[in-house]
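Our consortium's second objective concerns turning raw sequence data into structural hypotheses that experimental partners can test. To show how far this objective has progressed, the report includes one record in full. It was chosen at random from the queue rather than selected for favorable results. The single chain below, 266 residues long, was entered without modification.
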Amino acid sequence: MSTEVTFLAIAAGNTRTTVASVTCGEITNKKSFPSNETASIVDAALSCWSELDAEIGQIVMASSNEEAAKSISVAMADQTSRDIWQIGEDLPAPIGQHLDPETITGIDRLLNAAAAWDAHQQACVVVDAGTCVTVDFVDGEGTFHGGAIAPGAQAQLDAMHKDTSALPDITFEAPLKEAFGKNTAQAMLQGVFHGIRGMVRQLSEQYAIRYGAYPLVIATGGDAMLLFDDDELIERIVPDLQLQGMIASVKRSVSPEEADATTSDE
């Protein structure tokens, strides 16, 4: 593979899978699909692949959804006769880790952290608001310390409907800008929306106290704009953060001299 960093990126998530071309480190042709729509994902991936230079291109996948990743990988290997490089197996996530030895951390969290560090080179809180909400901390040396995992907004609403007899089945959206939820649906939305924002604020303050300085707070994920667009705590919303982490991983692998060594238990 060339140091121009050209590859087909597939990020298989729990709910949605994103496909994009990365050409000379730039993300183009990005498309997203429900993760169970394998045929649509593969069609989009093949379209991106056809536009890449096969001599320098590679297929790279990051997955937090093993079932979806397996289906996509089999189909792509059959159509392209190329092995798919899995980040976390064939390529490392380019971030140091200070975690309990037995911990298995989702590759999406590590790539988000790696991208945040790669872009800013300073301590960061990284919030990923998707199927789950994760709030993670990267210190000023570029080491991932873990963080917190909570149900995402839609998962919270689904649980309330499933586990009660009276609460309705609703889709997550921003609540009305009123102090009180005047009906059941609005009360549910108020609780979930402000509960997540409050959790992120509380955890960010906790991390800052433990670290001894206030870190940059970055958000990503499908619900990030809806949740944090007007939140003064969030200093950056980066929709492509995981893809940026994939680019950092490939760069590290093809040009290791350009990056510091990644170690465990720093």
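The partners drew two points from this record. The first strand starts at residue 7 and ends at 12. The helical segments are 38-51, 66-80, 107-120, 153-162, 184-211, 224-228, 241-254. Both points have been shared with the crystallography group to help prioritize constructs.
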